[in-house]
Write a structure and sequence with these properties.
The chain is mainly alpha-helical and about 300 residues long. It has helices spanning about 15-25, 30-50, 70-75, 80-110, 115-125, 135-145, 150-155, 170-195, 200-205, 210-220, 225-240, 245-250, 255-265, 270-304. The protein has one domain (about 35-304): MetI-like (MetI-like fold, Orthogonal Bundle), CATH 1.10.3720. The chain starts with 15 loop residues before the first helix and ends with a helix. One of its GO terms (cellular component) is plasma membrane.
Length: about 300
């Protein structure tokens, strides 16, 4: 009597006909969330696109019909085009500063042993995320106001004869935005640095490499995934931020997010605000794609 066939190709558990329904059943728990998020993203986006195509009259009220006149205004009027260019440069600067400043903090957090010190470091990194952006921004307003700590210190040290208008400066806006973005850069960097095997560093040191060479040749390349994630999270957030620049630097800061805000709340020109929003979104997606391509090229060059 011959034994029954146990070929994997004919096994019910490995049958392609049964794998597909099982895979679909695995997606059922996340389907409501995906549909909910997609609806809240796609439907408003379609409405904003339709609004951006409406021409407006002399008072800014939308008219019937469709045209690309709002997009032509966004690209030809310096009030909008310079804000887009300024937002792009500011977001790149904030991204670089967030990664550079976040790297030492992430390294210290990943190397700290479990205990009070590690807990305090983690709380120091995460606590800004538990506080409202508005509250943190007003904290910067208090620090850099005419009677704030920074102005008083500079006057006391003799660097200034009288308090300066620091709140309207571009430097203070960048510093405050970097402060808001730092946790988003530190957390993925901590995960990447914590996953590096210490034996690799010891092997590098045993082969004659010093601490600096070991850092550049071992630690930085292996932390590249964390750098990539941090940068691709910080960059789009910095592109669209407007609350912190508005509270710290005022409504005249040449950023696209503030231009959208002013067109909606002050000028009531909704079509051009919609067009500027969509151009800002496309520019953000383009920037994220360029960053992702650059990091993949860097990783391929490092690891072959």
């Amino acid at each position: 009597m011959s034994a029954p066939s146990t070929s994997p190709a004919l096994s019910p558990a490995t049958s392609p006909a049964l794998k597909k329904p099982r895979r679909l059943r695995g997606l059922l728990p996340v389907t409501p969330v995906v549909v909910f998020l997609a609806a809240l993203f796609v439907v408003p986006l379609v409405r904003v696109f339709a609004l951006s195509l409406h021409p407006v009259d002399a008072n800014g009220y939308p008219l019937d019909g469709y045209s690309f006149v709002q997009y032509r205004r966004v690209f030809t009027e310096s009030f909008f085009s310079e804000a887009l260019w300024h937002s792009l440069l500011t977001a790149l600067l904030v991204t670089v500063l967030s990664v550079l400043l976040g790297f030492p903090a992430a390294y210290a957090l990943s190397r700290a042993r479990k205990g009070v010190v590690r807990t305090l470091l983690f709380v120091a990194v995460v606590s800004p995320l538990l506080t409202s952006v508005v509250v943190r921004s007003y904290g910067w307003v208090v620090l850099f106001s005419a009677n704030g700590v920074v102005n008083r210190t500079l006057v006391w040290l003799g660097f200034l004869d009288q308090p300066a208008h620091l709140l309207t400066s571009y430097l203070v806006v960048v510093v405050s935005v970097v402060h808001v973005m730092l946790p988003f850069a530190i957390l993925p960097l901590t995960t990447a640095l914590g996953g590096i095997d210490d034996n690799l560093r010891r092997a590098s040191r045993s082969l004659g490499a010093g601490p600096v060479r070991t850092f550049w040749k071992v630690t930085v390349p292996l932390s590249l995934p964390g750098i990539a994630v941090g940068a691709t999270v910080v960059f789009p957030l910095a592109m669209g931020i407007y609350i912190t620049p508005l509270l710290v630097g005022g409504a005249n800061q040449p950023l696209a997010g503030l231009r959208v805000y002013s067109q909606i709340t002050a000028v009531f020109d909704y079509p051009v605000a919609a067009a500027l929003s969509l151009v800002l979104l496309l520019l953000t997606l383009l920037g994220v794609s360029v960053l992702g391509t650059g990091f993949r090229f860097w990783e391929k060059r490092l690891h072959g």
